[in-house]
Design brief:
By secondary structure, this protein is α+β, with helices and mostly antiparallel strands. It contains three helices and three strands. It is extended.
Length: about 140
Amino acid sequence: MSAAVLQESSSRASRSAFGRRGNPAAIQEGRVAARNALRIINEETTSPFHYYNKGDLATIGRNCAIALFGRVEGGGYPAWLLWLFVQILYPAGFRNRLTLLIQWAWPYFTFQRGVRLITATERPVRRVTGAGDRP
């Protein structure tokens, strides 16, 4: 069984219990930066960036997730289905979505874990026995 702890804060910047992820903010910043670049080219004044938090989703286990959208909080299987839908919705193109769905569905239904490779080899450690000794 998985559990999550949410702490309330009066600060608007720290409202999210999951922290800020780079992608939503980066997408929004990129759009504003592109518009501002065009405004600079057209010799217009630029507009400031204001982040809009669409909400937070996080998986906390198989078939379990937590969701936070403003004052609305949820969890469990419905939040996991919403997380899955959002993750499949964002890649561009039908083919990418279908590929992603197949890549996730096969291990999910067969209970197989993904390949985890550790490619680093251990190097022998030379130990110095005294202050004046060198390897």
